[in-house]
Amino acid sequence: MLNFDYSIPTKIFFGRDKIDVLAENVKNYGTKVLLVYGGGSIKKSGLYDKITNIFKNNEISYWELSGVEPNPRVSSVRKGIEICKDNKIELILAVGGGSTIDCAKVIGAGYYYDGDAWDIVVDSSKINKVLPIASILTLAATGSEMDAGAVITNLETSEKLATVHKDMAPKFSILDPTYTFTVPKNQTAAGTADIMSHIFEVYFSNTKEAYLQNRMAEALLKTCINYGKKAIDEPENYEARANLMWASSLAINNLLSYGKETEWSVHAMEHELSAFYDITHGVGLAILTPHWMEYALNDNTVNNFVEYGVNVWGLDPSGDKYEIAHNAIKRTREYFVLLGIPSSLSEVGIGEEKLEKMAKQATVRGNLGNFKPLAAQDVLKIYRAAL
Amino acid sequence: MLNFDYSIPTKIFFGRDKIDVLAENVKNYGTKVLLVYGGGSIKKSGLYDKITNIFKNNEISYWELSGVEPNPRVSSVRKGIEICKDNKIELILAVGGGSTIDCAKVIGAGYYYDGDAWDIVVDSSKINKVLPIASILTLAATGSEMDAGAVITNLETSEKLATVHKDMAPKFSILDPTYTFTVPKNQTAAGTADIMSHIFEVYFSNTKEAYLQNRMAEALLKTCINYGKKAIDEPENYEARANLMWASSLAINNLLSYGKETEWSVHAMEHELSAFYDITHGVGLAILTPHWMEYALNDNTVNNFVEYGVNVWGLDPSGDKYEIAHNAIKRTREYFVLLGIPSSLSEVGIGEEKLEKMAKQATVRGNLGNFKPLAAQDVLKIYRAAL
């Protein structure tokens, strides 16, 4: 186990009707709020009215940034910063999924930065201070509700980059599983794949003897497998939605990665897909993951895949190692198919054309990962296998 | 899954030589420290010198409360409060295991309380404010390094009671597994049993569909089982000590209990044993646990024990339910024996004499638990089975 510093400061209010705590928690930071949301589903669901009524009844003033994109763009961030500066906003409340929360985080960081917002995405060391962020989650997927990271897309440069600062972690997040009852099947599936991918990125690692972390990772993977399909088949199954929602937060709040060297290579490869083609992040991850697994499988890594197959999929440990490993990967692929996710790049409209360019771009900051280090030509092979 | 509010504010600095962060973290709270420790093992190990040198080199003044007992007594708490008041202490640093940290916590709470310290143990609602607490852990067991609870013994009244206040959670704790290399075999065994008991108390629950929490509990139980014996056989095995140490914190920092109704009936029963006989807490827990399990096993609970047997001990799920359940309990008992822990009350000098009195005392605040509610006569039966 490697040394680590543990700090997970986000407070979580979890469960039905937890929105009751909104006003008092907002007021810990001020009474001037920027409400950040996406395409308007929160208006259809009634959540928007609920929140704005709470604000009105508690003398909280609010401004709005709506229309944040599924892969949130730096242009939205810039707009948000302007509203914050013009109105001396004291708290940014994101209502939605990870994109909305990510956008809010970088608005909060950009508020205190003098240059252009894209600078602090490219180089997080330029972030010094962040306006307080809070969130009300409506989609179990990215874990942004309990972590310090954000991913922002720049369409002008076809770049999609992650930035991290400890003060971007939400001060509090409200997780009411009923808010995810209306999430469509395909988004539920993509969200589940996203959660699983976050776990895979830290589970498959060079670090030996992170036994505790690995068993916890398996616990969360089993949770996703147990409830992903159920949530699709029974959208109002509270327990399915609750387990997935809590898994989304715990998968990437560092609990699983403390003490380990971690990968994040599939995320880096996927970010190019959604930067170039604007596809759903979770779908890209689900398509790439089994191909990355097959590519990463070798004599150094086979035991990790055996452990995965036996502990997560319940495979018989007595067989041939490679057979177990391949079988585990097959089960992974089949599960994503069961969730209704496309299993090839061509199904989502991605062909050979830009693969080389994307592979180069994915490795522009250096080789990906350590478990199986990937240079541009490796990434290209994985993209091609996934076509 | 039940509603919950998640807040785990303690920062953890985990790993070799993490004591390097001590001075800067102390100084976040002040420069006048009360150092609380036990019987002097930290002097033998050199840790005392290391800490006091750091204080001297960083202009941190310190006072000392030494000799804190394994079941910390309210008399020690009173002494500590006096030192804090006389010297306007700004931070209390506990160095040791759970007893030392528990004592520090109640000193911190008592500092701001006008009456006698025992009042705030009996009734935690009397706690309003707490001096900042920090810890350097030298024994993996109670989890006090990352939770808000403390257990204090009053020898005059033969009471051992738990008290909780959110501000008693340490601001930071330093967890260096090498500090546990010198923990004797019997204390390593008792500590492991203590960790496992914390997990059992929240794992066996009436709450249905806390799937995620249950899988995580199993992850931690497997960690204890994988490393407990190893740490006894190879006291300087870093990975064994590290996994046990981190398990001790995560077992009881609420991560496993959020969203669940929990038990704590074995702890309540054990507190009477160590209040009346001053035995090691973990030993008492290990003796009582298998008997509590057998007593709690019935048609309502058998599925929980089957899940435990299959997921933790790898038992074949296809057999008769009760057979699996009994087998799981047998494996639990055998594991504690393997660790070298006595398996009956008589082995630790406890006879029939005070059993009735203790059973009455254990239930003085009401029946214990909900999974299998225990009245005084039930507790008595469990004590007798354990004789």
Automatic annotation (TrEMBL), chains A, B:
One of its GO terms (molecular function) is methylglyoxal reductase (NADPH) (acetol producing) activity. It comes from the Bacteria. Residues 188-387 form the Fe-containing alcohol dehydrogenase-like C-terminal domain. Keywords: Oxidoreductase. Residues 9-177 form the Alcohol dehydrogenase iron-type/glycerol dehydrogenase GldA domain. InterPro entries: ADH_Fe/GldA (IPR001670), ADH_Fe_C (IPR056798), ADH_Fe_CS (IPR018211), BDH-like (IPR044731). GO terms for cellular component: cytosol. PANTHER family: ALCOHOL DEHYDROGENASE YQHD. This is Uncharacterized protein. It comes from Clostridium uliginosum. The lineage of its organism: Bacteria, Bacillati, Bacillota, Clostridia, Eubacteriales.
